[in-house]
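Illustration: Rod shape-determining protein.
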Amino acid sequence: MLSRFIYAYGNTLYIQMWSDRLRVFDGKTGKVFDEKPQIAWRFGERKQKQILAFGNGAEKFRNVNAVTISNPFSHPRSIISDYKAIQPLLRHAIAQVVKTGVLMPRIQVILHPMEKVEGGITEVEKKALCEMAYHAGVKSAFVYWGETLEEAQLTRAHDTFGKA
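Result:
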């Protein structure tokens, strides 16, 4: 009962992932993040990756020396290419559609790999996708594959799919 009450004030996000596109749709507000899944980064003073830009904004760093643009969804066999890079990318995409702050709403997500799912998704891929979502600040994650969900279905997603 309590979790149903919390989700009444939370958000359900539908995250679709392609090797060249990341789309995040908020079923509550209708806001959408739909950009290339790119991260522009360089090594900082302590040899740590310093992120400069995400999504389409990374393009402006395309020909800048010492800056690398990577796509964490670009592996030929799996939707996951760079586990650690997907986490800040998801965090950024979620922040574009959900108001974040001290009183951040409870967020649940439906993760939908749109390609590279021939034969289904393995348990390892499901676990990796959910873990990446949890590290991005999500409270509940569900991995789905199949036909694209309609926007009307997403307004009732927490009742339809439940918790991961």
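Reading the tokens back as a structure: The beta strands are 11-17, 22-26, 32-35, 39-43, 49-54, 68-70, 107-113, 140-143.
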